[in-house]
Amino acid sequence: MSRTIKFLLLFLILIPIITSQQRPYVCCRDKDTLKEKCFVGGQCCNGKWYERCIDFEIWVAGDKFTIGQPAQLNVYVRNKGAYADTYSMNYEIIEGQILIEWDTNNNIYVPPESDVGVFRPTINILTPETVKVKFIVTSQSNLRKEVIATLSAGSMYSMSEFSLAIILPLLATLIFFMVKRQRPLL
Question: What is the pLDDT of residues 43-90, one digit of tens each?
């Protein structure tokens, strides 16, 4: 074989191998075991591997809500990064009628590696329709995450709140008129 053909074959074999490296390897200590490892992607922060040095996640949880009655809604922030961070929260009402009482100057500080902080806005759902609210959490390092909460409230009255003294006469009157209507007219 000629030298040109050998070079061409070697070139055709090496090009796919060289270009197949999609992401560089990052070698540093595993944050859980502290053993030296190499990872595909991620970042080395303070000598430990993280998906991102600055990262967090947010989610919303609350109890049952009653129309017209204020209740707390918890907006959780988990710091998944290598460094402590301070977070602020804002909101945007997407759909429905709701009042939200919240001090926008209130920030929370969350240490690194899976510690959780909580914002506790007071909400008051004004109608029986479903309400959608977007909560926006921004870190001091300007990373921003959003979560949309779909909330609904039940009526503020339930059968247990009605007195038996009211229900029984109503029921007796209903039965009386139903029986009277079934009798033939003379």
Answer: 887 777 777 778 899 999 887 888 889 999 999 999 988 888 999 999
- Parent domain of 95: 56-154
Q: Is residue 184 part of a domain?
A: no
The domain tally of the chain equals 2
Tokens standing for 91? 């909101």
- d(C-alpha 115, C-alpha 68), whole Å: 34
Whole-model pTM: value is: 0.64
- Say if CB 56 and CB 80 are below 8 A apart: yes
Reported as a single tens digit per residue, the pLDDT across 109-164 is 999 876 899 999 999 999 888 899 999 999 998 899 999 998 888 754 444 444 55
